[in-house]
Amino acid sequence: MKPTLVLVGRPNVGKSTLFNRLTRSRDALVADIPGLTRDRHYGHGRIGHRPFLAVDTGGFEPLVKDGIVHEMARQAEAAIAEADALLFIVDGRTGLTPQDKVIADLLRRSGRPLHLVVNKAEGMDRAVVGAEFHELGCGEPRVISAAHGDGVNELIDLVLEAFPDEEEQKGDQLSGPPGIRLAIAGRPNVGKSTLINTLLGEDRVIAFDMPGTTRDAIEIEFEKNGRQYTLIDTAGLRRKGKVFETIEKFSVIKTLQAIEEANVVVLMLDASQDISDQDAHIAGFIIEAGRALVIAVNKWDAVDAYRRERIKIDIERKLNFLGFARVHYISALHGQGIGGVLGSVDKAYAAAMAKLTTPKLTRALLAVVEKQGPPRHGLFRPKLRYAHQGGSNPPIIVIHGNALDQIPDSYTRYLERSFLDIFKLQGTPLQIRFKSST
Ligand code: GDP
Ligand code: GDP
């Protein structure tokens, strides 16, 4: 489970500067995917072997009681409640303000692990800048400069110390329940709970773990057509009699966490509505996480031929970066099309976990290069020599050769498409990495 770090503080202390610094390297990885829309308040970060999710709560003003600012405060409060660690940012140049004290109270009361971060301290004496903030009662002040990067890695190292790193997590996953880990993601009211109830209907539920803390995701094991699945909740489900119902409002953080923990994500869209920014943002999270994906366009029963045509065009236009995923038109309410979705989930899982041997990959690579070589770049022509598999879910293909840093993105895309095609990997994205020996 990737820890979620939530950045909180009054406006202008440098939250978004820090957020951008933490998430920038991951940005570069997906920046060239045309059409991908992202929510600039949520992002992936990584320091060494430690990946995390970062949340920027924006302009947090707890004293305002209504209007749009109040709505932002409400969302910030939800993020605080769901945080694995809070980074409380204050401004070392302005010094301590009354508003900082109000926020400090609120954060202390949340009971979440809390780190006090004094920003904008480049060129200043750390001990002196930090001193006046002790009185906030939020622990030892950590002094940084988000703009210059001073102290940032040390800070994040310290914050992440409390959480298992990637290697430890891999061990955990092996001991988990068998079957496909599945998340159903989508904005409010697309029909997630309805689909979940249809899936879990009757006696298919094998085990249902109530979480030990609010932070633990609910996991539900169920069986269908002889296959086992573990559903990772994004909706805040509670069991009431035979059915599950949603007990909380839509949570971006829960959605992000569930996507991270899933093997395959079913992205639900509502056929009666146009594709919204929120749909595109969720799609962006799924791409960034590299998850296998199936798209389910729900409420197909409720729309006429005109609307059906329109939503198809809308998906092609606004979610064109999801071209690798199968699309199903379903009615969660009437149980129509669900079998097809699960069939595609199985295929996407198989593709995401495919084992590709070095000889097979190398043969495929050489054939693809033979058909169309990489463009010459100045004096260099990149030489692609062999390939091996560097990971699964998503499959990572590591290509070895010379001058590979000269390969343009368009050629990388061509390689991606070719490998997906040759190995018939339906429903998973694929990652290409280059290792140059010169
Ligand atoms: P937010 O409102 O908390 O998200 O703050 P921003 O990240 O937008 O930063 C507010 C202002 O502080 C901007 O003008 C930033 O350039 C500036 N700033 C952010 N971090 C630093 C820093 O480490 N040092 C200095 N001197 N300025 C900074
Ligand atoms: P969630 O917020 O994504 O969990 O959405 P819900 O499952 O609560 O559904 C929102 C609304 O859409 C409810 O009124 C459902 O009855 C309705 N709904 C869900 N699936 C379908 C469907 O397949 N067809 C129709 N016509 N309505 C649906």
Describe this structure in words.
The chain is an alpha/beta fold. The chain is about 35% helix and about 25% strand. It has 13 helices and 18 strands. A seven-stranded mixed beta sheet has the order 8-9-10-7-13-14-15, sandwiched between helices. Helix 8 (about 250-260) packs parallel to helix 9 (about 275-290). One guanosine-5'-diphosphate (GDP) binds near residues 188, 189, 190, 191 and 331. It comes from Georgfuchsia toluolica. GO terms for molecular function: GTP binding; ribosome binding. Belongs to the TRAFAC class TrmE-Era-EngA-EngB-Septin-like GTPase superfamily. EngA (Der) GTPase family.
Descriptors:
438 residues, alpha/beta, seven-stranded mixed sheet, six-stranded mixed sheet, binds guanosine-5'-diphosphate
